[in-house]
Amino acid sequence: MRVSVDPKSVESSPSVSAPANESGDAAPDGQGSVPVRTPGDDEARGEGNGASEALRPHAEDAFAAELAALAAQDDRPRPARWKLSPWAVATYLLGGTLPDGTVITPKYVGPRRIVEVAVTTLATDRALLLLGVPGTAKTWVSEHLAAAISGDSTLLVQGTAGTPEEAIRYGWNYARLLAHGPSREALVPSPVMRAMAEGMTARVEELTRIPADVQDTLITILSEKTLPIPELGQEVQAVRGFNLIATANDRDRGVNDLSSALRRRFNTVVLPLPESADAEVDIVSRRVDQIGRSLDLPAVPDGIDEIRRVVTVFRELRGGVTTDGRTKLKSPSGTLSTAEAISVITNGLALAAHFGDGVLRAGDVAAGILGAVVRDPAADRVVWQEYLEAVVRERDGWADFYRACREVTA
Ligand SMILES: Nc1ncnc2c1ncn2[C@@H]1O[C@H](COP(=O)(O)OP(=O)(O)OP(=O)(O)O)[C@@H](O)[C@H]1O
Ligand SMILES: [Mg+2]
């Protein structure tokens, strides 16, 4: 028997209402007093419902005004069930100014072509694999793509070594299963199944951490665009608009390598590290500014010199050579990614706000840098000390930073 799922029946299943319920486990009816937001529920996004109070709003909520402005002025053709045309999705990610003067802030700072290829892939029948070293915005880009294309970035499976097949396919509400036997009502759809039924974008994070046999569940979904439910003699066929974005870390390669059969189902886009120090400073200050505002921290302009310094230290240690190319350096074991620079600066701003005079200074970032650089206490400490004495100490205008680092390193 071949049955296409009525999206309504999937939606009305009680156990798909919690965005955090990614494992497909049954959620109890009547969620107590904890407010639960239904993904895709537009009503729930209004004022005063808790969404605006969220510590980290979803991209589609945080940038709702930009998305609405883009949708209103976007007269290019949209693929089936896309909220925006591919051009508008790329503009949402890369930023720009609309004809009516609305400014779209850049979300991703990097080569335009990469974003264009990623967006175009999602308009075809191939899925998108975002690959890159840690902290290159794979998760960030995936969330924003889903928000711009489907208006919902919450159809997410978090990949871990323990991700079961049910997280990608479907599970059962055991109370209903026992009471009524296998039926549509007892079935708990996974985020991927919901995306297929509703023609939305599904996301799988850290694909290569998922055990190989579970990963292979995706092969039928991506090549046949169907998800069989043998227990019911039914299947869920993906409707137009469905696609999938997976992210994977370069460094995890070899943990659970993608089978070549699965890899063929994806177009791979590699996200690079920021090409220049200026680009990286730009990324860090934008993001820190956003995070800082939500935490009521001091404004970034006061801290731009420290941001530049953190980025310089990270880039030099990562690259194994000083900016002027004169001194070779040993690289520490940590990744020293842009994401880590962002958190070092955010922590520094919090220190400055709560225990300093509100201006980000060398002393506020030194401990954070040390923590990011020295991951392996034995080997990395030697690398750091060499860098401190050979580079930081000698550099003009870095005396305050040298002192602050010596203080925390000792
Ligand atoms: N090129 C970039 N443009 C904009 N933001 C960036 C860029 N690179 C990094 N970031 C920022 O870095 C942060 C971390 O990115 P994210 O978590 O998406 O990295 P990731 O590649 O998924 O890392 P991991 O492999 O550890 O999962 C985000 O807040 C993002 O804003
Ligand atoms: Mg990630």
Can you offer a commentary on this structure?
The structure is a single chain. The protein is of the alpha/beta class and about 400 residues long. The protein folds into two domains: about 5-270, P-loop containing nucleotide triphosphate hydrolases (Rossmann fold, 3-Layer(aba) Sandwich); about 275-410. The protein is built from 18 helices and eleven strands. The strands form four sheets. The chain has a five-stranded parallel sheet with strand order 4-7-10-3-11. It has a two-stranded antiparallel ribbon with strand order 1-2. The chain has a two-stranded antiparallel sheet with strand order 5-6. α4 (about 85-95) crosses α6, α13 (about 275-295) crosses α15 and α16 crosses α18 (about 400-410). Adenosine-5'-triphosphate binds near residues 132 and 342. Adenosine-5'-triphosphate binds near residues 138, 274 and 339.
Query: How many DSSP-defined strands?
Result: 11
Please count the helical segments.
18
Number of domains: 2
Q: Please tell me the CATH architecture of the largest domain by its name.
A: 3-Layer(aba) Sandwich
